[in-house]
Design brief:
Shape of chain B: globular
Strand content of chain A: under 5%
Largest sheet of chain A: none
Structural class of chain B: alpha/beta
Radius of gyration of chain A: 23 Å
Mean pLDDT of chain B: 89
Strand content of chain B: 15-25%
Number of strands of chain A: 0
Order of helices and strands of chain A: HHHHHHHHHHHH
Helix content of chain B: 25-40%
Distance between the termini of chain B: 51 Å
Distance between the termini of chain A: 26 Å
Largest interface: A-B, 29 and 34 residues
Radius of gyration of chain B: 18 Å
Structural class of chain A: mainly alpha
Oligomer: heterodimer
Number of helices of chain B: 9
Low-confidence stretches of chain A: 1-9
Number of helices of chain A: 12
Mean pLDDT of chain A: 84
Low-confidence stretches of chain B: none
């Protein structure tokens, strides 16, 4: 076995690609079957097509609303984009602030004593419960929804990072200090890479909560954009097609965010490094 | 005489307690420049702790510990450490692990890699520069740890049971393989080990610590030129001598544990 073999097996060898494909087909097979049954039932009039429009109708709605004939034009891309921007902004904030807080809490006594009780009290509060307060504070616009995303995600990030620091081998620090590393160097060269797998987990959980909280906040806060608003607005006009379109988009995007985006990040880092840190 | 007569690390009456437990009572020892000293002793005698005191990770409860005449107050780039459990950074390749000390000191990438290359060659890691630690065997990981500790040129190299986590065959191979390394390194080396044969094979001096609370009870100079042959009868004599001293202490330590239980 040469050094090249040892150094890095390709992430998708023939065998693994085959297994992945089989996996996707099996999983989507269930969904596809469901959709087909739904379509058939709708066409044959077995179900109330007002309450349960045929998938083909929903698809058509998504198509028209995504184009210039939508109301407003390009409605769906606009709403999706708005929701995504809010989510990413909130997540970015949560990652930066959550990481700094998490590291402080994990590494220093004063931060631990200061923040631990606060976190214990506020973490269980459903993020959505903050929306009315935020509406009063920041009004109906992006800021409220971004803060909702932030709150939903930051607790997860802090929690997993603190756990990550507790799992760290103290000798990693010893090695760095015996090389003369400054505190800043230790932060960026030792702590951040060491807790990265935990940060990813925190991000995945946080993104899940944040996405759900965002949609709900968009519905509650009645801002004029975003997938949540789209559903809320459609319900006012009883356009069940649009409602279902929204639901499907929310589900698909949520899945993609949690699994594909973060999954790729995981593959590029923690899998290469070996899941467990050196002990 | 030889150039080794200048004291590098001096320990005077070192004491170390952990809570109520007195691990080290009175360790007094002088390690000369470029000497290879092996410290051996029964389990629990604090030999690893002594190494951590020199490294600066812990502070003595009493006594004086100096390097080049200056008190040791903390870790620093003048003392490199190799741990039993390797402690490599799993997110860095072999090469980046090895150049880490230089990277931290701000040395430019090309120069750092050039300096690392020498130790990569001497530790037999050529070809593995871009591998990640998770893909390496224990022996390979320890070579990386050793190369890493040598590359940024600390004056002193501290080895904490460096072959303790390796199986016997790998260990023997490493000891044979790395003999040239220590010659090439040409610096003060302090190695903790529980293996008498390892100590006699590699070191200029073997220091034996007593059971807890420990003090120095033997200091044997190994007067056999390198490369040393295991089958040499002089080597056997040294091994027997030290093993006898050590066994007595191990017996004491074992009975101490049984009493406490």
């Amino acid at each position: 076995m040469s050094a090249a073999d040892v150094a890095g097996a390709k992430p998708l060898s023939g065998e693994r690609a085959g297994a992945l494909l089989r996996n996707i087909i099996t999983r989507s097979g269930v969904i596809v079957t469901l959709l087909v049954l739904w379509e058939v039932a709708a066409r044959l009039g077995w179900i109330n097509t007002f309450l349960f429009p045929a998938p083909s109708n929903i698809a058509a709605t998504i198509w028209t609303q995504s184009g210039p004939d939508g109301s407003p034009p390009y409605a769906i891309p606009m709403h999706v984009l708005r929701s995504m921007i809010r989510l990413l902004a909130g997540i970015a904030l949560a990652v930066v602030i959550g990481t700094v807080l998490g590291v402080l809490i994990g590494m220093t006594r004063w931060a631990c004593m200061l923040f631990q009780p606060l976190i214990s009290i506020f973490m269980p509060v459903p993020t959505l419960a903050w929306t009315p307060v935020l509406l009063l504070l920041t009004g109906i616009d992006d800021r409220t929804t971004i803060i909702v995303v932030f709150i939903a995600a930051v607790f997860e990030v802090i929690y997993t990072i603190v756990a990550g620091i507790e799992m760290m081998n103290v000798k990693l620090f010893w090695v760095a200090r015996s090389m003369g590393a400054s505190r800043l160097q230790i932060f960026f060269r030792v702590i951040i890479p060491a807790i990265f797998p935990y940060l990813i987990t925190g991000m995945r959980l946080g993104t899940g909560y944040a996405w759900r909280a965002l949609i709900a906040a968009e519905m509650l806060a009645a801002s004029s954009f975003g997938l949540g608003f789209m559903i809320y607005d459609a319900s006012e006009y009883m356009s069940t097609n649009v409602i279902y379109a929204g639901i499907i988009l929310i589900a698909v995007l949520g899945y993609l965010l949690e699994n594909v985006l973060i999954g790729r990040l995981e593959a590029a880092t923690t899998e290469k490094w070996g899941i467990q840190s050196e002990r | 005489m030889n150039a080794r007569s200048k004291p590098k690390i001096v320990a005077k009456g070192i004491q170390k307690s952990f809570g109520n437990v007195l691990a080290m009572e009175d360790v007094t020892l002088s390690i000369q420049e470029r000497e290879f000293v092996a410290i051996i002793g029964p389990s629990g005698c604090g030999k690893s702790t002594f190494l951590y005191l020199i490294a600066g990770f812990e502070k003595p409860s009493g006594g004086e510990l100096t390097i080049n005449g200056n008190a040791i107050t903390g870790p620093g780039p003048d003392r490199g450490v190799v741990f039993q459990e390797f402690v490599l950074f799993p997110w860095l390749t072999v090469l980046r692990n090895i150049t880490l000390g230089l990277d931290i000191q701000g040395v430019k990438r090309e120069e750092a890699e050039a300096r690392a290359l020498k130790w990569i060659r001497l530790t037999g890691l050529s070809g593995f520069e871009n591998a990640y630690p998770s893909t390496l065997s224990g022996g390979m990981k320890q070579r990386v740890a050793i190369a890493r500790a040598l590359t940024y040129d600390p004056e002193v190299l501290l080895l904490d049971e460096p072959f303790g986590a390796l199986d016997v065959q790998t260990k023997n191979y490493m000891i044979r393989d790395l003999q040239d390394l220590w010659q090439e390194a040409n610096r003060t080396i302090v190695m903790i080990t529980h293996s008498v044969s390892e100590a006699v094979h590699m070191a200029d001096r073997v220091v034996v610590l007593s059971s807890r609370p420990s003090r120095v009870i033997a200091d044997v100079r190994i007067d056999v030129p390198h490369p040393r042959d295991r089958r040499n009868p002089t080597m056997h004599r040294y091994e027997d001598e030290i093993t006898a001293i050590l066994s007595a202490e191990v017996d004491k330590a074992m009975s101490l544990e049984r009493q406490i239980k």
